[in-house]
Amino acid sequence: MEPTMIELKHYRHGELPEGFRQLLLDVHTDAYAAEMDDPFVRRFPWFVDHWSALDGFACVVGFDGEEPIGFAYGAPAKTGREWWREHVVPAPERDSTFSFSELMVRSRWRKTGAAERLHSALMANRPEALAVLLVDPAHPKVQALYESWGYRKVGDRQPFPDSPRYAVMLRKLR
């Protein structure tokens, strides 16, 4: 599907409207419909609550009319506790990091450029020097997409006992 006019709305910690959490959960349910039997996938509400409670939380949601098509969110990492540190020695001189947690596009709007628009809008004007994300290497097309946006794999990490082992990807923002 070719989206007509996608409107991007920005949201920040402390300024989240009523229904925001449910909006993200609804997009997730659609985006992961085929994987909802996976216990880790079903834990997504916990991640929404965790990330949206962080100082500096930033989210961009795309809308096609009134319908949400997807979102991207993350928050600044606490200095010295970044996911990538154990994989990059020595650390870059400028190492402030934005932890890019989620990018999700509903199935109907995939392959329309919506993911790149959401990512670009979230990363625009970030003050941090770096962005880090985790991607499941079982999805090589997704990893290749991030590589096309300037990320590079620096290591592997399994952040939770029930999660996949992810590729740690890092990108300079400045």
Automatic annotation (TrEMBL):
PROSITE patterns: GNAT (PS51186)
Domain N-acetyltransferase span(s) in chain numbering: 11-174
Domain of life: Bacteria
Gene3D superfamilies: 3.40.630.30
Entry protein name: GNAT family N-acetyltransferase
Organism: Kitasatospora misakiensis
